[in-house]
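Researcher: Go.
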Amino acid sequence: YIIVVGNVENKPIKEEIDSKFKSWEDAKLPVAIYSPKKLDNRGIDIQTKIIDNAYTMINVCKISNDNDLNYNSDKIKIGRDNAWIDVLNSRLSKLAQTANAPFASISTTRGPSEDGVSICIQALPVRDQWEIALPVIARELNKLNQLDIPETEIENLRREKIEYIDKLSKTSDSVSNSELIEELGQYILRGKAIGGSPQSLKLTQSIWSNLNPSDVKAGFQKTWEGAGPLISIISTSAIDPEQVKASWLKAESEKVDTS
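Model: Structure:
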């Protein structure tokens, strides 16, 4: 897709795009990094890639059982089933802002892959130290799996999301072109209501109203069960896949400390 925003006239800009880009073909991103395939019960899959002059990047991905990226999907059910992503993002974001945080940035995204829907945790470890950052990701997933999610955490997220969309709807004139492009991209790829629109506010309220913490946890467990994950690391130097696997398995097997 090509998205154009700004003070333009539809017909001339469409004609120019059709003329200049008619020979373009859809690009395919590297499967090992951004578009994981189903693992077919092969267990954990480790893939490493050396790229010169690049930041070290960690991707931890799973394939969702539901191929629901279309306009006719039940958006409320999908949103409620994947509310755990917002919980995890909130926790990881706060963790990244603490002193001595193991990553410079980290986020969880959900989008199309060759075999359905992929959920990927993407992190930039501080000083390229993947061996410190990767176990932290495993431990945060363990917390979602082993511990109950506090009702107050769900309530705070619900309030923050509704307040954000409500604020966006009242300040739409101040939305930057890059933010608008992101919103339109989400709409095209996932049928997601555009932020700040009445539909977006209504959808968010429907998803988060009366959302039970146990349902959020169940949504995570449904997504994260079975084979995998696929762990891929981009680095400027060689990394032993067996070392990556051992690091993940050790952290994943740890019992969460509740003291």
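Model: Confidence is low (pLDDT under 50) at residues 28-42.
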